Amino acid sequence: MIIDRARGCLLALAAGDALGRPAENLEPAEIARRFGRLTEIEPGGGGTDDTEYTLFAADLLCRYGAAMTPDDVAREYRERVLPAIAGPMRGAGFSELGAVQALRRGMAPPMTGRWHPHGWSDGLAMRAAPYGVFAAGDPAEAARLVEVDGAVSNSGEGLHGGRAVAAAVAAAMAGATPGEVAAAGVAAVPADSWTGRNLRAAVAAAAAGDAGRLRQAVVVRHYPWTDLAPEAVALAFAAYLLGGGDVEESVVTAANLGRDADTTAAIAGALAGAGRGEGAVPDRWAREIGPATGRCLPFVAGRHVLDAAGGLVAAREREHGQGRAPSGSPHLDQG
Amino acid sequence: MRSGDRIRGAFAGLAIGDAAGWPAARHRSALLAPWSRRLARELDAFAEEHRLTTLPVPFALNQPVEPLALGPSDDAEWLAWTALTIGQDRAAAFGALAGRDDLRARVSVRTALDNLAAGKPPPASGHDNPHFFDDAAAVRAVAFGAAGADPRADAEVTNSGDGVLAAVAVAAAVAELVAGAPAEAAVVAALAELPGDTAIGHAARLALAAARAAGDPFAAVPALDAVLLDHVYSYGVGAAQTVAVALALTEVSGGALAAAVPAAACLASLADSAPALTGALTGACTGLSAQPAGWTAAARTLAGCCLPELAGTDLIDIAGGLV
User: Fold this and answer.
1) CB contact (8 A) between residue A101 and residue B127
2) Domain range for residue B139?
3) What is the CATH number of the domain that holds B188?
């Protein structure tokens, strides 16, 4: 069962990434003008940085498990990300670009995540799902682990965004309802934070079924970049709730809201896929998901999200074989 | 005892630095008809299409030419507004601007005004803000430092984290200077407010080390570019960079405005505000009476390019209100 949810989570994430790609940075009205309702993945288009950084995070967990430290993550960037990049980074978020420059300057975490101004980027939230898969049923542990990864690239609200997604996926992996999944995400971030305020507004707007109120509450009007974690994670959670936890409906809703559409659709997909399993991902989407091309992170070229899902489940079992009791039921922290 | 010459010098110095940076003419071109700026954007596209290195500059076809003369822009106007409203509750002062459609301001301020209008008070108005780290509050903090007042309540309306630390550091430095302290003491006072594990604290120490090694302001320019600038992000008003430059150039110039401001203006990507902040600190140190008279004359009269009601106002008169 857990392998089915793990495969569903990462497959739907990749599908959301690919579906949302052509809608990124477009207004909903422009998406409607170009696509009607965007429901089909552009054939041969594939995924973007969301999928490839998710593969990176899954690989980190397979190597280090729950004992992973920020220094381990920084070493992986130095040894496997930096040498494979000739010239500029391609297809990375500002947070990863900024962190790479800080690493090249010889800085160590957490300064690498603070040195650049994009601590709030959704670059961590977009790759947070593997932490929820690995710590299925334990949202607090998922949130702790994703923050270890995020210490290299993010700070502040970017860490909160990662925590919310990882915790929510961990709840969904254990069969929580969409409402419980969203609550697990909200509980994983400080109440007095931008992400916390936006997530509560998103949950309320979704309950009212009001996408206009959602955008009014969480979309920043006078800023041209859309990769703000407090905004993207709120849009993704709302889309997931508006979609009732159904994979196709959640992902399509997120993609058609625009803004950082590949990332919001990927996160909505991860939540819904973890809840409903691989079979809930439309076949026509699954057929479009092949091995990563490595266009963003060359060292993940050739890897498939379904293999990463298997690797994560195996890593989880190794972890539990080393003395930790597997958590059989979700213990959702509602505090 | 606070010095009136140094208080006026801080304000005039900020305006001189503001005027010296290349973005000033772009801000001041906001006073021209919108179609003239549209033509400028089309010329930029033309230059790209035709592979021309002859770059278009702000110009005034069938428009008044005065706005494009050397003069102050956004930072001088927001400083003036701060001095004029300094006795008011800060959320209320900003709240009175929310909803106006004739203002121009940094991303942090625009977003804070939206937050206030949506019922989100400080500090959330400055925290739930994509540009919480910019130097809008640091510029306004020159007024609080000159008045010997705490800049935090003002800074938290529009900024958070490094953006608030920057304001506290600038106010601390200006307060030292208007009390008669030398440049080095002002920099020490500012650094004491900037923890080393923050981006701004780390950057300030890197910038000071680079400038000391270079030995003088102009010689420090390439080293400051190398240690501070990644050139990844699109906007050059991050307080971690601009305040670091201002502190480093203030110290290495010994507080000499005429040496420090031109060096700050050479850092092209920070030229919107690093020269202004550098000018405020070194202007306080130099004092109004010792500043180059031609620069003071060109920089003291506000254009109204951000806050239209300030057009024609004398910034040095406004500074006098704090003496």
Assistant:
1) no
2) 4-19+75-320
3) 1.10.4080.10
